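Regression check, 26V case 810:
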Amino acid sequence: MFKDKESFKKAFTRQMLDKLGLPLEEASEADVYKILSGMIREHVGRDWAKTNTLYKAQQEKQVYYFSMEFLIGRLLGNNLLNLGILDMVREALKELGYPFADVEEQESDAGLGNGGLGRLAACFLDSLASLQYAGNGTGIRYKYGLFEQKIMDGNQVELPDYWLQRGNEWEVRRPDKQVEVRFWGNVVTRELHGRLIFETVQYEAVRAIPYDVPIIGFGHPHINTLRLWSAESMMDPFRQPSGQDGSYYRYLDYNRSVESISEFLYPDDSHYEGKLLRLKQQYFLCSAGVQSVLRTFEKLNLPLTQLPDKVAIQINDTHPTLVIPELIRILIDDNGFGWEDAWDITNRVVGYTNHTILSEALEKWPVQMVRELLPRIYMIIEEIDRRLRIELMQRYPSDPDRISRMAIMENNQIRMAHLAISGSHSTNGVAALHTEILKKREMKDFYELYPSRFNNKTNGITHRRWLIYANPALAKLVSECIGTRWIKHPQELNGLIKCCRNAGFQSAFANVKRHNKEKLANYIFDKQGIRVNPESLFDIQVKRLHAYKRQLLNVLHIVHLYNQLKENPGMDIVPRTFIFGAKAAPSYYLAKRIIKLINTVAGRINGDASVKDVLKVVFLENYSVSLAEKIIPAADVSEQISTASKEASGTGNMKFMMNGAITVGTMDGANVEMHEMLGDDNMFIFGLSAEQVQNYYQYGGYSAWDMYNSDSRIHEVMDQLIVPGLICSFDNEFRDIYQSVLDHNDEYFVLKDFASYSEAHLNIDLAFRNRQDWQKKAILNVAHSGKFSSDCTIRGYASEIWRLIPVQKK
Ligand code: 26V
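Current build output:
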């Protein structure tokens, strides 16, 4: 069916008739999408089954990546790419009169994640399958993904993302694999043959139904599974038919509460809130996921003591930490294990990845909530805490402060990070700097207790989606220059180093960038009616809106540039297009105000004819995976400007680098490792170091008001937030932002870093004038980006944490 273009066209036309009863001329793009995705699904079905059979036969160890988020985006193009037929299908459809780009748009993004953490999980799945590891994803099939963002009058408005409305061609519902998850109830303890038995009674049961999504490896028929769980009602959740005890209304309430479990993704990744529904989601994922893992293991007919030889579970942040007590519960209560063995097995199975050091995002569940919703799990957590305290008492007999700092339960809260570290054999950070900060500061006590558990795994991105698929013109050019080995061995992108000075290659490289910029310019015009000049420098910041990511620094600097141009209309600057894309958590007031500010500044500048040839500002609505694929290949400059020490790694930084954008950034997250390879020549580094930031927090010595009073540029732009003029249209329009900076002593050092940021931008301006040298820098960025392929990251996890080898036919 996919042998060659002609047989594909024939099969495709035929299926259109057979399945939809449509002659090709009458098919819409939606019909084409449906038939094409259906054909791929059929095509991979057999290999999917074969992969599973192979896993069973070979009995190789498997990893389960547990995550509350998988930010997949669209699958059609990626699946075709990994099957090796994207170009053929693209051409065939074109010949049949359907541009592939229009067909792709028929698919909704699977937006089951907020940002970096969810997208990382999706990149990891792609690498696991492509490297032929037995690697499974375990997540939740939210009915509503991350909200759709509309900008109205400059403000963010959230609309529900009902991504399943048009159906999901990539999932298979598996009712035969359902499991039961239990909430509430009371634990009854009794003794049986000298052993304590724990039984939970009067619980409420929920049905967990898996939906399996095939994850297609690149270049071979290796197909893994992402299993997404959906909550459904049971007929007799209280173990008696509803109505029998006059509780029909209770059943209706139950029904509604069950459906809510997998109803929507929490849209906030910045502030932890102890919400019952979120805790339910987490336990739902953990319990369903662990039960399913154990069912698969059972088929091997091995004793559970061998579980750690066959199964690794990686928890993506603390959100799935309840896998630890859940696994212990099943081992003890359902399989008769004693505490020590259950604890030891669990510890060897689980690994934990930390993704943030922001204290406001750390999960701490109220004791009472956990005790009521999950009574048996609560008992187990209490026991873990009790044993940890004993261990600590023995180790630090005269240091009670340390014990309360490290305890799992303290002040009526359960600290999930402490539970995750003590219940697992590995804790990793996501970039070298981040891991150092965990070891030296944030988790210092635990590092001292368990030094060998701590390790670094710098994040990565899949070069298949983010380079080959999103930027086919660049991928082709790269292959023309260095051959195609880099596709399987992304580190070999460094073969480009030798081409970076070649004038012919530089100009071909520049043409690709120019072509991508034209495409983005057209998109911007179609969507928002703004004309941007593809000749101008495209300076882009796309990511979640957070105070620490400092979109504010970027926009204040734009206002400053604008002021300069107004003062000195003849000023010689490189024409710039500043592009933003960002969603704010719906309840994050300041973040939403910054969106309004960016849009206000954009409106003012774009409406001012006197700067129309040199300055444009665009805020692109509804930033998402599919939008990122359009934006990133068109960037000249990538803004990675978080307050040093705050961004655990960043992954957008890597995507831009791989697409030949040059970074203006702080020494934060993975920027540090980019800088190590690129040096000052090929990156624009500015701002305080992580250490300087830490010192200010610890010892003080910084005054935002002093900054404001001593730097006239800062004074001017800050006043423009509250005084009508070039930006504001009425008094105090952005006083909230103004105060958040000045009255809270500029927690994120926006003003402190303003001067060095401006200077970095002056250097960018100068560098961009020398086009050849600029191309050289851009090429070197691509050349060094192979280290940030998630293939590299996954190999690290596999060999050092999971002890996994690729599964190949013997
Ligand atoms: C936190 C919370 C807390 C409240 C409930 C909902 C929710 C959802 C997600 C999160 C996680 C925030 C942590 C996170 O996304 N970290 C990012 O992880 C990326 C991948 O490792 C990394 O590149 C980014 O630097 C880091 O900010």
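Comparison notes: Residues 114-117, 120, 266, 268-269, 272, 317, 355-356, 361, 430, 459, 647-651, 669 surround 26V (CB under 6 Å). The mean pLDDT is 97. No diff flagged against the previous build.
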